[in-house]
Design brief:
single chain; 222 residues; alpha+beta; 2 domains; 48% helix; transmembrane helix; transmembrane
Length: 222
Amino acid sequence: MKVYRVSNKGKVRAGILLTTIGILFLYTARKAFGLWQNSPKKDTDLLLFGLNLNTTLPALLLSLVALACIPVCWYLLVELFTHIEVSDNGIGITAPGYRIYYRWSEVSRIDVLESIQEDSVARLSISTHDIPEIASEENHSGTFLSEPDRNANREERKLSRQRRKQGLSLIQTRATHADGRALNLWTRVLYPQARRPDQMLLYPALDDRANLLAEIRGYLKQ
């Protein structure tokens, strides 16, 4: 089994980004706190429901910027400590708090999402052939059917929607904690990869990523 981790260059970039975002968070949070605490009113100030718009709007915008820094830092940290495991049996992704594993028979293809392969995100698309067949098209000929046939057509569309929901649920259960426990809904919010486990993202920051992509393509050709 070979393990791919974030490269040293990727760690330096992540450190610079985390430092920059941390400074931005401290600055905007401090400014927003000051505006919320001190909002002197003048006769020329615009008021809405007793709020001074001259200070409330800037404070609100700065607060939103500060809050947005938190999930960005979290996602960077998750990516920083994530590693990919490749073996003859399949490929797995392990991150702080969760892991996903797929057999090679479940991986349908690999796509590079940008034109420059060396510096772009790659995506593994996970097939669902182990799940009951999912119909992707609906019958639009209901206008020309009799009433019993239209009822049967509606039942068929209903079953199709149920199959799609079942397929999505089965795919989502693949993301688990390290000990095998299922992730709950709130935990999935913390992990972007766990929200779409049918697509495994391989970021450019991985060390020896070109060899990883070549190894994956080699297994897919077998």
